[in-house]
Amino acid sequence: MDTLAVTGGEVLRPDHSIDPADVLIDTVTGTIDAVVEPGEVDADRELDASGGLVVPGLVNAHTHVAMTLFRGSADDKQLDDWLQEDIWPVEAELQAGDVRAGAALGIAEMIRSGTTAFADMYFFMPEVAAVVEEAGVRARLGHGAITVGKDDEAAHEDFRAGLEFAREYDGTADGRVRTMFTPHSLTTVDESFYREYVPKAREDDIPIHFHANETENEVDPLVEEYDQRPLEYADDLGLLAENSFLAHGVHVDDREIELLAERETAVIHNPASNMKLASGMAPVQKLLDAGVPVGLGTDGAASNNDLDMFDEMRDAAMIGKLAAGDARAVDAPAAVEMATAGSAAAVGFDSGRIEAGANADLAVIDLDKPHLTPRHDLLSHLVYAVKGSDVRHTVCDGTVLMADRELQTLDLEEVIDDARERAEALFDRAQA
Amino acid sequence: MDTLAVTGGEVLRPDHSIDPADVLIDTVTGTIDAVVEPGEVDADRELDASGGLVVPGLVNAHTHVAMTLFRGSADDKQLDDWLQEDIWPVEAELQAGDVRAGAALGIAEMIRSGTTAFADMYFFMPEVAAVVEEAGVRARLGHGAITVGKDDEAAHEDFRAGLEFAREYDGTADGRVRTMFTPHSLTTVDESFYREYVPKAREDDIPIHFHANETENEVDPLVEEYDQRPLEYADDLGLLAENSFLAHGVHVDDREIELLAERETAVIHNPASNMKLASGMAPVQKLLDAGVPVGLGTDGAASNNDLDMFDEMRDAAMIGKLAAGDARAVDAPAAVEMATAGSAAAVGFDSGRIEAGANADLAVIDLDKPHLTPRHDLLSHLVYAVKGSDVRHTVCDGTVLMADRELQTLDLEEVIDDARERAEALFDRAQA
Fold first, then answer.
1. With A374 labelled, which of A15, A27, A147, B416 sits at a CA distance of 20 to 30 A?
2. Is the CB of residue A310 less than 8 Å away from at least one CB of chain B?
3. What ipTM does this complex have?
4. Is the pLDDT of residue A432 over 90?
5. A315 reaches B (C-beta below 8 A)
6. CB-CB contact of B411 with B131 (8 Å)
7. Are the beta carbons of A146 and A89 closer than 8 angstroms?
8. Residues B320/B150, Cβ–Cβ less than 8 Å
9. pTM for this one?
10. How far is CA A129 from the centre of its chain?
11. Within the 328-347 window of chain B, which residues sit less than 8 Å (CB to CB) from chain A?
């Protein structure tokens, strides 16, 4: 056994208690071997966490990571206009190299802000898998399949490609890449395709992830056509299951909440995106109270505009209170749970908790900052005061991905330069 | 003339255009002498802004800066419970040294996140003035006067102290300290005190700043008692004027909005605090459309939980869209305007714009970050992607307060240690 010890810090435990402890990691299996009293470990290597807070690596449970290339390209627009006028025309010009560059940029950003795992639905997914492998993070990846705007043959090709990617890439990158089947949304995929492909995914036990109930425009047409709420329709299609999860769930009624709880289907909350696109406020406290599993995601950088899960925790707590009309709603422990164990469970990773046996995915936060002073309550700080830039080290699968703010697996300068060049050429093509 | 040139950066102009330029500062007057083509300045000293974005120093137009000592001490509670159970009992134990330590902590935090000026309503204000002088920032300070919970004599003493502070300290710290008269709120100050003291403040041309319409609980009792909306009552008391400004304005109706526009009284929007305390969503786009002057503030760190105006700009844009149900509302230019020129005008400083003649209050942002890549739109980045930690230099009144992230006027370690000790002793006293 080769070991790494994270020493000298205070450790956030699964029960949200925080106490001084050292974390012993088995770097061969990439799991936590033990969490022990300070000063008791004898490891091959040490990572200094003194004066810091050791937390589970955050899990970004819904993003489109390569959309970092779109960051700031189209803000302050309504969702439909934004997609049709700004996003889709540029996406039509995407090349594999763009996705690779955008994914590298997004993953660099996530590592720097303490995120060790993410769920991604996009295009050219083998490129994303390659960057995940190189960067050392963990990801659940799916090829986003859509029928809107495609002829029948092209749509079938797209869906077959989605299943093929899921089968071929699952378990690659030493098991850090897992896959999923990702039909885009309830309104952008024709019913017949759900009827044909969902059973195929279920046959192979492939998790399904999709967008649902993000805006009222995604609810009303389905109610009109099927005389069912969207998630009743989704259930009828076989989309709701324990190994599956949906993004957004902003406009859900009580019957749909009950259905999600019954099926144990997780909702991934994307508060920043929901605010920025004026989609609405997800009833997160209601979901939690009903026993619906809830995870947290940034959505793509085009509607956020960053991939910083600390922002997202704060946003979740803030908007959760507004949605409930109650300052007690979505409290700090709930927000932390959502971004760690909640997201990890939704995505299907044994991460999001610092405990023997779990994946050794963690971040060390430097507490020696004016905005983290005084220290009445470190859990509160995690949600309401810590910034992504306070993360000192990031570890995933037992490997140090960032040490003292220096990336260890990616060349940051190269990543930034490459993304700039790629974005410029991509937008030039789209405008040509 | 002694000069400092900020060179090599791109400069955000008052019309929101951004172009490469150098900023020449007259350090004797503390004002901007000229904004010129790159490479043309000949100055006594230079501050390197290459690869950076030069923006006006942000103006935090409503805070209680010493409340940094309360950060994280009581979260996820309703406003009334929070005040009565958590805040007021501790505030009863406050000593001058606590306010000095808390103010130093908050000012350090603000300088580090590009804020150069603030408006502060609290207690022991000579202590705050002393730290403002030492730290080199700019502030409009007022002694928060209140009648609730006080006997008549104590209340009069409090109000007289408020006027005396405003008269005595105005123009100190080489003019960087300006003052105001700050009756706490429409519901925590007895009408007779407004009738007596507002004319005295007006006589001496002292600006007035107060809390109003923050929660529904602050609206309903006034409507009941006076059969007037709160801001009609405020107008009747002589509180609405061009040199005066109110904090929050969450629950305002159309008549009140009209009144604010007529009186040219600024509303200071505090989105983070309004979300965290579930107070509601201020109709910011409606205020702007009606021509009401709008500034931006963090409120105290106990309800935020930081003093980072970049967070606040993002929050303002986000919640502004939700409140309007329109993703086009409170766009990036509006949010930037609010945090710079809008706040500066409300507070009464000739800051918030980079232009010859204005105060030399500015911040330089390091753009060479993954989360600020690519660069489709730097104004969008300012609101949706820049973090306080991206600020490289901060300049106020022509003096460099932070250079390459190093504070120049405060000893950060000492500030943090002092705040920790003070907070511990304060809370020990309160719990005794």
1. A15
2. no
3. 0.96
4. no
5. yes
6. no
7. no
8. no
9. 0.97
10. 15
11. 328-329, 331-332
Percent of chain B with pLDDT over 90: 96
Residue A409 in contact with partner chain B when CB distance is under 8 A:
no
Using a CB–CB cutoff of 8 Å, tell me whether B374 touches chain A: yes
**SS3 of chain B:** CCEEEEECCEEECCCCCEEECEEEEECCCCEEEEEECCCCCCCCEEEECCCEEEEECEEEEEECHHHHHHCCCCCCCCHHHHHHHHHHHHHCCCCHHHHHHHHHHHHHHHHHCCEEEEEEEECCHHHHHHHHHHHCCEEEEEEEECCCCCCHHHHHHHHHHHHHHHHHHCCCCCCCEEECEEECECCCCCHHHHHHHHHHHHHCCCCEEEEECCCHHHCHHHHHHHCCCHHHHHHHCCCCCCCCEEEECCCCCHHHHHHHHHHCCEEEECHHHHHHCCCCCCCHHHHHHHCCCEEECCCCHHHCCCCCHHHHHHHHHHHHHHHHCCCCCCCHHHHHHHHHHHHHHHHCCCCCCCCCCCECCEEEEECCCHHHCCCCCHHHHHHHCCCHHHEEEEEECCEEEEECCEECCCCHHHHHHHHHHHHHHHHHHHHC
- Token pair recorded at residue A105: 């940029």
All structural domains of chain A with their residue ranges: 3-56+354-407, 59-347
The Cα–Cα gap between A138 and A129 comes to 10
Note the pLDDT tens digit of each residue in B334-392: 999 999 999 999 999 999 999 999 999 999 999 999 999 999 999 999 999 999 999 99
A91 is in an annotated binding site: yes
β A399-403/A391-396 pair status:
antiparallel
Across the interface, which of A324, A381, A423 has its CB nearest the CB of B374?
A423
Q: Give residue A429's Cα distance to chain centre.
A: 29
- Give the count of alpha carbons within 13 A of A284, CB side only: 33
Class of domain B3-56+354-407: mainly beta
Distances (CA, A) of A138 to A119, A126, A133, A399: 9, 14, 8, 11
CATH of A59-347, one of 3.30.750.24, 3.20.20.140, 3.40.50.1100, 3.30.1330.10: 3.20.20.140
